[in-house]
Write a structure and sequence with these properties.
- The structure holds two protein chains of two kinds.
- In chain A, the strands form three sheets. In chain A, strands 7, 8, 9, 10 and 11 form a five-stranded antiparallel β-sheet that branches. A four-stranded antiparallel β-sheet of chain A has the order 4-5-3-6. In chain A, strands 1-2 form a two-stranded antiparallel ribbon.
- By secondary structure, chain A is of the alpha+beta class.
- Chain A contains six helices and eleven strands.
- The longest helix of chain B is centred in the first third of the chain and has 15 residues, at 52-66.
- Chain B is globular and about 70 Å long.
- In chain B, the strands form four sheets. A six-stranded parallel β-sheet of chain B has the order 3-2-4-5-7-6, sandwiched between helices. A six-stranded parallel β-sheet of chain B has the order 11-10-9-12-13-14, sandwiched between helices.
- Classes of the chains: A alpha+beta, B alpha/beta.
Chain lengths: 203, 586
């Protein structure tokens, strides 16, 4: 996914001077071959789509077909009357690839709008997880105490297990899960990230 | 007009309401109701092909040569899968198509029923949009929406998969008055501030070049006209992609020839050395750019395109303008002519001098022969003998396609039908069928290779059935020529599986189809043979036996830069100082 690209001159004058310098420095290369490798970034995209059969397959097919990454994906109908769903995708790529993903999504017929929450919206991101822990004695007490510290709620309990519900940023959940591991972690179910912009305006 | 009718009748009625005159197709179990509805009317004429791929290519030829939407009907299962190559081809080259496919009845979908396949699943990545119609009430809207989606924005193929029970069901048909899709609104008008900025960049450019593509053709005749005016007004040189040939006339003084992998020396050098590239309706395809990190290294780039995903996909541009070519060109021309004086006249004069130096190398030169027909010579003669006629050219894919692009001079848009993006061997013959139907009195020539043409040869029967006098002009070199060329240059001359073994006798083959077969083997006989081909008012297969060893030059091998071209033996080896000087100047 690491795309290298030609350094397009920011301005003609600047490019010209680069060209001259290169010629004087190297007899074998008459032309500047300046390549830069852009860093990989993680972005969260909110995509408003028609809630119609196949729309999720279309979006996922775009990602697999063009070799883009999906780190997380959530989808649900958000406007029942208007038959609109909101897909939240966390993806990774160079800035050029992220821009390409956005434009590829935008040109799909059932896609109404794409917002790069990472860039445009100073978004709030949250994820919900359910975490099952099995244990007795001190481990059980410790799990409960940590859950309290993380503001996780107990939503199911037996004499030898808990199911916690925890909501928060993804790294907070990661942290909680890693703490539960030595205390008898059985399994985790996570929703994937949802995002919304700050302030009064919608997407 | 609101009327009760069956789903099958709605499909035909919608075609009539959309002005469709011809539909290409092949019947089968899951489309029998549609074929029954066709039988009961005489407004839409059905053209029976011999394979569904042929139907789609014929519709592409029809669409590309007329600017209208091409229409196809195929049955479920194998009918739909056979159409996939054509759909993918139309997707790559932005050809507007509506393809109706039959599907097993709704209650059997997902049951592995006879001739069932997941048509919407299979065609999703190779169509602009597709539909599975599960409810008769949705059908009229979807039918009209499909035509709208196919023909607007960046055009492309749309599939409507209609289960057989929906074809039988009755519902209320009305042509929707307003359109259509609430989320789909392609942007056509370019941002005025950016267009202004573009013109300002053009005024200060010392070494500008126009790089145009199929988008200009898709935008319509107005875009072509405006492009020509703008090119003339600015005095800038112009080159074009394979798909864009004909937008600017090949005889025009500012024409550099096609660019890219098999483009002319002057066009590729101009692209490499330019300080301003004005890309209009092209997409920086890898056949064009070559090595990306050495692509036009000192240029600023303006990119006009209707598809946002084409912008900054391969090459980062300095000024993207999202919009329809015609609208943007019109605004560019207006702003340019407002103040024609302000240009870099002297600098451009020296730019043209440099270009003339590149032109002087005559990069398309080849060694002529009295013994064997050189393929380039065959195209040149075909051009000379057909240029004064109302001629349309289609091609297959390979060396012959590149030679056709290099040596046939296209003066007008929509006269050149070729498979550019997907590179589909077997495109040209069925495309010629579609073109000839749309232009019954014109001369339609498929410039073919003996290997490609065998992929869809069965469509000769279609041509004969409908009395379409298409001319299949085969440059027969007994090889998959482009494969052989790459094997010669890159794989040590090991011609693995590229020899056309056991070729049919094309003359007898033509006769077997009740068409006319001609063969020519000597350069001296070529003109008369071509004249005979033109004069026959029947489908013709012309077996033009050419030099089997000829390679297609110039050539930029994959992964090389524009100024790193392989030239043919016959190219003028002029004073290298010109190019050295040219290089130092940047």
């Amino acid at each position: 996914m690491l795309a290298s690209r030609a350094l397009a001159g920011a301005g003609c004058g600047a490019s010209l001077s680069i060209g001259k310098r290169d010629i004087s420095m190297s007899a074998t290369s008459h032309y500047p071959v300046a390549t830069v490798s852009e860093a990989i970034e993680t972005h969260t995209l909110s995509v408003k789509v028609d809630n119609e059969p196949g729309v999720l397959a279309r979006v996922i097919g775009l990602f697999s077909g063009r070799g883009y990454n999906i780190e997380s994906l959530t989808v649900s109908e958000t406007e029942h009357e208007a038959h609109l769903s909101r897909i939240t995708i966390v993806t990774r790529g160079t800035p050029m690839v992220i821009e390409q993903i956005k434009h590829q999504l935008e040109r799909m017929v059932p896609v109404h709008r794409v917002v790069d929450m990472t860039v445009q919206a100073r978004a709030i991101e949250r994820e919900l997880a359910m975490v099952k822990v099995r244990g007795k004695g001190d481990n059980r007490v410790e799990a409960l105490r940590l859950a309290d510290a993380f503001r996780a709620r107990v939503i199911d309990a037996t004499v030898e297990s808990f199911v916690f519900e925890i909501t928060g940023a993804a790294d907070k959940i990661d942290q909680f899960v890693s703490l539960m591991l030595p205390l008898g972690l059985v399994e985790v179910s996570r929703t994937g990230i949802v995002a919304i912009s700050r302030g009064p305006d919608g997407m | 007009m609101t009327k009760e009718m069956s789903g099958a009748e709605m499909i035909i009625q919608a075609m009539i309401d959309q002005g469709v005159e011809h539909v290409f197709g092949y019947p089968g179990g899951a489309v029998l109701p549609i074929y029954d509805a066709l039988f009961h009317q005489d407004k839409v004429r059905h053209i029976l092909v011999r394979h569904e791929q042929g139907a789609v290519h014929a519709a592409e030829g029809y669409a590309r040569s007329t600017g209208k939407v091409g229409c196809v009907i195929v049955t479920s299962g194998p009918g739909a899968t056979n159409a996939v190559t054509g759909l993918a081809d139309a997707m790559c080259d932005s050809i507007p198509l509506v393809c109706i496919s039959g599907q097993v009845p709704t209650h059997l979908i997902g049951n592995d029923a006879f001739q069932e396949c997941d048509t919407v699943g299979i065609t999703r990545p190779c169509t602009k949009y597709n539909y599975l119609v599960k409810n008769i009430a949705d059908l009229p809207r979807i039918l009209h929406e499909a035509f709208h989606v196919a023909s607007t924005g960046r055009p492309g193929p749309v599939v409507i998969d209609v289960p057989k029970d929906v074809q039988f069901a009755t519902g209320t048909y009305a042509k929707p008055k307003t359109n259509p899709h609430r989320g789909y609104v392609p942007k056509t008008k370019g941002d005025p501030a950016r267009i202004e900025q573009a013109v300002a960049m053009m005024r200060t450019a010392k070494r500008p070049v126009f790089y145009t593509g199929g988008g200009v053709i898709n935008s319509g005749p107005k875009a072509t006209e405006l492009l020509r005016q703008l090119v003339q007004a600015t005095g800038f040189p112009i080159t074009s992609t394979l798909m864009g040939l004909g937008a600017y006339p090949a005889s025009g003084p500012q024409w550099l020839g096609m660019l890219g992998m098999h483009g002319t020396y002057e066009s590729n050098m101009a692209m490499h050395d330019c300080d301003l590239m004005i890309c209009i309706g092209a997409r920086f395809d890898d056949r064009i750019t070559g090595r990306l990190d050495a692509f036009a290294p000192v240029s600023r780039k303006i990119h006009v395109d209707i598809d946002p995903s084409s912008i900054n996909k391969n090459v980062k541009v300095d000024l993207p303008i999202l919009g329809d070519c015609a609208e943007v060109l019109s605004e560019m021309l207006r702003l340019w002519t407002q103040n024609p004086g302000e240009t870099q006249g002297p600098a451009q004069k020296s730019w043209w001098k440099k270009i003339d130096g590149w032109r002087a190398r005559k990069s398309l030169a080849y060694k002529p022969s009295d013994e064997v027909i050189k393929p380039q010579y065959a195209i040149q003669r075909l051009y000379e003998l057909t240029k004064d006629r109302d001629t349309y050219i289609t091609t297959e894919v390979g060396q012959h396609q590149m030679w056709a692009a290099q040596f046939y001079g296209f003066e007008e848009p929509n006269r050149w039908m070729t498979s550019g993006g997907l590179g589909t061997m077997g495109y040209g013959l069925p495309a010629a069928v579609g073109v000839q139907l749309a232009h019954p009195n014109s001369l339609v020539v498929d410039i073919a290779g003996e290997a490609s043409v065998q992929m869809t040869m069965q469509e000769m029967a279609t041509a004969v059935q409908y009395r379409l006098p298409i001319k299949i002009f085969i440059l027969n070199n007994h090889y998959m020529g482009m494969v052989r060329q790459w094997q010669e240059l890159l794989h040590g001359g090991r011609y693995s599986q590229s020899y056309s073994e056991a070729l049919p006798d094309f003359v007898k083959l033509a006769e077997a189809f009740h068409a006319v077969g001609l063969r020519c083997e000597k350069p001296a006989d070529l003109d008369d043979a071509i004249r005979e081909m033109i004069s026959v008012d029947q489908p013709v297969i012309f077996d033009c036996v050419v030099d089997p060893a000829e390679n297609c030059f110039p050539m930029i091998p994959s992964g090389r830069a524009h100024n790193d071209m392989l030239l043919g033996d016959a190219v003028e080896n002029l004073d290298e100082a010109i190019t050295e000087e040219g290089k130092v100047m940047v």
